[in-house]
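Submission checklist for the structure archive. All mandatory fields must be present; incomplete records are returned to the submitter.

[x] Identifier: Thiolase
[x] Organism: Oceanococcus atlanticus
[x] Residue count: 410
[x] Sequence attached
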Amino acid sequence: MKMNAYVAGVGMTRFGKYLDRGLKSLGQEAISAALTDAGLDKSDIQAAYMGNGGAAVVTGQVLVPGQCVLRGMGIGEIPVVNVENACATSATAFQQAAAMVSAGAYDVVLVCGTEKLYSEDKLATFSVFQGAVDTEDMEGVKRRLAENARATGSTADIEGAGSTRSMFMDIYASMARTHMQTYGSTQRHFAMVSAKNSFHGSLNPKAQYQDELSVEDVLAARPVVDPLTLPMCSPIGDGAAAVVLVSERKARQLGLGRMVRVLSSVLASGHDDPGKPDAPEMTVNQVYAEAGLGPDELSVVELHDASAPAEVIYYELLGLCAKGESVRLIEDGETRLGGRLPVNPSGGLLRKGHPIGASGAGQIVELVTQLRGEAGARQVDGARLALAENGGGFIGNDVAAIVISMLQKV
């Protein structure tokens, strides 16, 4: 829906491995930072949309994770909505909160995504991702992966999916091989994306990984599943990100100086109609239509690079280039800082990390920072219009959930 909401404050932890910290500690750090950034008190919050994806499996915290985080810092009484929507969890929380503010239900709403994925039990972590497909069709999922491997001439070991690695790396690998076969992209192009995002991540103090990799480093790294090497796969992570949304009335009361406007935010799910565009194309076209702006006017993009090939594919799905032209964007450096349209200046999920319940809100934090001109060494010059794309889960041949949002400098 067309939005009329404003981001007043943002905050996040560094994403990483925190075996000694829980959801409450991480979430409270991000929320406190966002409230301070907004110049608001916790008593100003009228409602909260709290996102978490994996705690039920990894930590055993079910049903009320949001209330646990908030009550631990003295926030009660208000409506609290717990959101779980695969990797699009906190992006969904953001969309729902922005819709409620735009509808006039609230003047101040908190959005927070918190996640704990690191565990001594790696199979527990893998099972979080394995649950983001249709578990009643697991044989069908593996059959389609095997069929893709045969059709693309790959010898990928499908039996390792979900046991030695996240099943989603096999899904992304199959998408990568299809793109290679259809459009001529290569493993080296994917390595160029990983190297680019490592450069961006090296400039981000909140990124999980801050070392810079060369294309050759990426190609020489440990193979995961054909054609992906380890740096082409986003790492799991722990962390939290928070956003304070306010109404136009409240924004004017606080002063518009550092505000960022939410122009559009669309939540959608995939479908099985071969006659229609897949969910990403359908959703982004709705966003462009609602905002009255197109991809040529964007300054910066944060997209869901859970694997390097995903970034290549989403250049096309988001209309940043025509089908088959994404390799040109990579080769010409157009999506690198200093290029025509920087993509994932935060380092993306590949380097900033992918604590699934916090990833979508983390994208919003980065874009707000960019639009305010406060991103330091990774600042995109003259950033005025930003797009965030965050997808999650996979059913059949389409994403299960997706949120795309457009933000504008006031």
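[x] Structure attached
Curator remark: The mean pLDDT is 97. The two ends are 19 Å apart (CA to CA).
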